[in-house]
Structure formats: structure tokens, C-alpha cells
Amino acid sequence: SSYEVDDAKYLADMLAKGKQEHGEVEADVIDDSEILFIEELQENECNILFYIGGFLLKGMLSVVAGCGHCNSALLGSTESEHATLTILKEYRSEGGNLTYPSKDVLLTLKSCEEHFRGIISWSEGLLRLRSPLKAVTDYLNEMVRPCVKTCSEHSDAVAKLLIANYARLRLRVHLRHVSSNGVNEHGSKTC
């Protein structure tokens, strides 16, 4: 798609700029030896992550289409303690246009976010990775144990897709933030 082409172009521009600034050899994996601790997310950050989780889930539901067990494991309700922001963003009074993730999905995404923040807080090497998306996805797959209780048929696919979708979205947001701080004047127009 055009989004992937744009992402590749701007990601390549930014990584080239980062490589010029640092002048170091590219790496293939994330060195987590520098990560001293992982900070827990605050309440308002969990509300934002809940909203983002619904966005990520909406694109994943086709993988488990027709499986009632998986749908109930992935989908939550407006009764969640972190649904406040999502409820406020509903543009129809009766709701139904936004997806609400389950508690287990939120716990998985929360763990992903905490580990991602550890990477960007303690490690200087994210811009020097040869393939940042692959490295972040591999790192999160290694560090995060998804706690979503889907059926055995969809278990692996759901876990991998959830982490991969999160990593892609989160890396886009991070690159946009880094770009706005002067690393690359173009930034990613898809974020």
C-alpha cells in the first residue's frame, strides 16, 4: 500500500540521518543490557492505550472471524476501568463505532508499551538498527508473554499479530516524535 511505501521512504531517510550523526555500525537486534528498569504506566496512559488497543483490534478481528471464544477473549466492554477516553471519543450516543479491547488485551499492550519505553529510555541504538520494525517486534515477542486466552487454533496468530501491529504503530509514533525534534525535517506523513 502507499502507506508502507511512504513509511519505508521516510524511515530510510531518518535512519540514514541517524547513522550519519552517530557514525556507528548498524545493529540487527536491540541490546537490552542497558535497560535498567521498566516503568509502570499511569492511569491516564492506560486510558490512551485502551483506545489505541481498540484501534489495533478492529483490524485483527477478521483473523478470528466466526470464533466466538476468541471474540470474547479479545473484546471488552464500556464497563472497563480504562474505557473513559474511548467512551468520550464515541461520536454516536448509542456507541458501537469503536472497539473495546478486553482486559487481557490491555495487559498485553501495557507490557508492550512498558518494554518499548524501556528501549527508548535506556537504549541509544533504536535509530541505528538495520531494521527497526523487525528488531522491535522480535524484542517484544521475546519479552512479552501475551495473556489473551484465545482458542488453540488462533492463539499463535493472534499473539504475533497483536504484538506486530502494536510495534508498527508505536514505532511510527516514536519516529514522528523524533522527527519533530529535528532528526528529519520530513518526518513520516502517515503518523
TrEMBL record:
Q: Which organism is it from?
A: Rhipicephalus microplus (Cattle tick)
- What is this protein identified as? Putative tick transposon
